[in-house]
Structure formats: C-alpha cells, structure tokens
Amino acid sequence: MESMDNVREQFAALERQTEQLKHQTQALARQARWWRGIACGLGLLGLVSLAPPSQAADFACPAGDVACLIDAINQANANGEANTITLAAGTYTLTATDNVTDGANGLPSVTSTLTIRGAEETTTILERATTAPGFRPLHVAGPGILTLERLTIRGGIGGVISLFSTAGGGILSRGTLTLIHSTVADNRVPGPSGGSGGGIYNTGTLTLTHSSLVRNEVNGVFAAGGGGVANVGTLTLTHSSLAQNVVNGVFSTRGGSIDNLGTLTLTNSTIADNTSIGIMNFDGVLILLNSTLAHNVRGGIDTSGTSTVTLQNTILALTETESDCQGSITSLGNNVLGDPTGCDITLLDSDLTGDPGLDTFTDDGTPGNGHFPLLPTSQVIDAGNDAACPPTDQLGQPRVGPCDIGAIEFQGGAPVAAPRGPQGPR
Asked: Of 46, 84, 353, 358, which is the most buried if we count CB atoms within 10 A?
C-alpha cells in the first residue's frame, strides 16, 4: 500500500509540473504572437516608408533638347504635382505633331501645374520648324495650370477645334495660363473657314504680365478675329504690348489685336498698329486703366451686343481709317478720345479730345516694351486721376503726381525701363 501511495504522489507531482509547463507554454505563445504582430506592423511601416512618394520635380533641359522637354512635360503630367522645367538658352525646334487635342499640338497637352522657365526671352525660343506639318506649340487642358517665364513662342499654326473653326496659332488654353516676360510672335491661324486667336486662344484664365503679342495673324474668308488673342474666358493684361497683329478676312473686320467675348482688363498696356480693330468687344466686359490704343487701322474699340466698356486714364486715338470707337462706352474720367463721333459716350469734364501728343511707336524687343513715348507738349501730361493711377507705368517707371493719362509717364526725356526682378521691374 505504501508503495502505491508513493506512485500516486509521483503521478500527482508530475501532473502539477505538466500543468505549470502548459501555462508557461501558453504565456510564451502569447508573447510570440505579440512580437509577431509588432514585427508585422513594423514591416508594413517599412514598406510604406520605402514606397516612392508622388512629389514635385525640377527638370532641366540642355539647349535645344526637344526630347527632354517632351519627356519632362509627360512626367509632370503623371506625378500630379507642381513641377518646374528649366530650359537652357537655345532654340527648341518642334518637327512633329505630339497629339491632336483641339487640333495638332507639338508638345504634350499640359494637364498638371507646371512652370516652364527660360534663361531669357530673346535667347530661349520654342518654335515649330518651318518645314514641319501645321501645329501649335502649346496646349493647356482644362485642369492644366501653366506658367511661361522668359520664353518666346513662335511659328505655330492653329488647328481645327470645330467643323468650321480653327484657333490658337501659338497656344490654345482651356485651363489657367500665365505669361511673364514672354513673347508670342509670328503665329497664325489659316483659312479657308473662320478662325480666331492668331497668337493665343483662351477659354479659361489668361494673364499676361510684361509680355508681348506681335505679328500674329488670322486668315480666311470668314476669319473671326483676334489676331493677337481671342478671349472667351478671363483675360488680364498688365505692362504688356500688342502690336502689328492682323486679321485677313474677306467678310470680317473683327479685332486685329483682341477679340473679346469674356472679361478683359487692361492696365498699363499699349495696343498699336493692328489690323483691323484694336479690340472687338462682343457681349464681353472690357475695363481699361492707364492704357493706350492708337494707330490701329479700323478703330480702337468696337463694342456691340450686351457688352460693357469702361475707360479711365486711357488714350483712345489716332485710328487710321475710321473713328476711334464704336458703340456704347462709359467714361470714368481723365481719358483722351481723338475722335469720339462713333461712340455712344458721355464725356466728363476731365475728359479730353483731339491729338494726344504721342511720339513715334518704339519697341526694343523686350517683352511688354512696345509703347508711344509722350511729346513734351502732350496734353495728357499731368492730366490723369492720381487716385486711380498705378504707382508705375508700362515700363516700370514711377508715376509722379499729377500722373499722366495713358500707359507711359513722361519723365522729361526718353523713357527708360526700370531694372527687372523675377516678376517685373523693381
């Protein structure tokens, strides 16, 4: 019996040890599961941190490297961030169509936020080769936000945007487009049907600052107009110049410089020597402050439909073949109208008529420089409204009170453009 009791005690002790080992094993298993969970979490965190984030990029292209520019635009569109492409000084000659969005385009349509920055507008040129098929260099899609700095865009040919319409010789924008210290020159929209926007066609938001549109043209039997720019959206011009833009239409005489069906604001800008009308404003809103429209072939402003036009501190004169304005115009005072006989306008006591006293049109090729200096005997000197005048004129020269009417402030000698900072004259 005693031996059996010993056996039972040994079995009981063994069971107690087994139970303790079981509890210890369960505790170790729980600890192992906990550590495995921590390790898994750290592993996932590591994978997330190692995944390449979508981020903005700065691209740089050597002189004339079109393939680099095309690749950079495609990468910028793909990453969805705000990107910058810096172009070395040189001529970037496009020889083939990249896509056919709103007609043929030489570069990929811009769908992201992008800045393309040149070394200098006179040395960084984006052009269509003269032997290439017809296409415009640039297109901005609806979501695109494109800023061009210190570039020249030239030689483009507008494409078909509807059955009987071609548009946008240099640039067509349905998004947001800003030009700073840039020139759009020698682009055209061909016939034989209607066309518009020899330089730029805009249905979105377009801003030109210290920039020029020159020698662009629209051709065709039913040419719509806007040799320089056709605006169906919002257009703002400051410190800019539009000159020698042309509309060649058998049955059309619409704006040789600007065709406006949207909202257009001009400040410290000059519109000169355009064929046919300086601004054609059809069902649009037009606001001019301290600007000069002169020597346009068939009128300074032609407004019709439900349009509204307001002028202040502005010169509208010296049209070559017709009256300086046609249609209903509102004066806010301190304007010079050379020949107001075609206008429905109530002149205020501060408004002047007759010869404004402009010297010969001059343009040194700097974007936004094209202007009429004032003769020392000009009646516009000291005749502006100081409360409305901007602090500087078109060239960045200070306005001294009382300020002068028009885009240029008389300095007592030949006007000299102020030194430039990144966004304009300092």
From this structure: 358
Q: Strand 212-214 and strand 183-185: pairing?
A: parallel
Can you give the residue ranges of every domain in the chain? Answer: 7-51, 157-353
Residue that the structure tokens 């349509």 belong to: 109
Whole-prediction pTM: 0.84
Per-residue pLDDT tens digits for 144-183: 999 999 999 999 999 998 877 899 999 999 999 999 999 9
Model pLDDT for residues 86-106, shown as the tens digit of each residue: 999 999 999 999 999 999 999
Asked whether residue 197 carries a pLDDT value surpassing 90, the answer given is yes
Is the distance from CB of 189 to CB of 182 less than 8 angstroms?
no
Tell me the three-class secondary structure of the chain, residue by residue.
CHHHHHHHHHHHHHHHHHHHHHHHHHHHHHHHHHHHHHHHHHHHHHHHHHCCCCCCCEEEECCCCHHHHHHHHHHHHHHCCEEEEEECCEEEEECCCCECCCCCECCCCECCEEEEECCCCCCEEEEECCCCCCCECEEECCCCEEEEECCEEECCECEEEECCEEECCCEEECCEEEEECCEEECCEECCCCEEECCCEEECCEEEEECCEEECCEEEECCCCECCCEEECCEEEEECCEEECCEEEECCCCCCCCEEECCEEEEECCEEECCECCCEEEECCEEEEECCEEECCCCCCEEEECCCEEEEECCEEECCCCCCCEEEECEECCCCEECCHHHEECCCCCCCEECCCCECCCECCCCCCCCECCECCCCCCCCCCCCCCCCCECCCCCECCCCCCCCCCCCCCCCCCCCCECCCCEC
Give the tokens for residue 8: 């039972």
Is the pLDDT reported for residue 220 higher than 50? yes
170 within 8 A of 136, measured Cβ to Cβ: yes
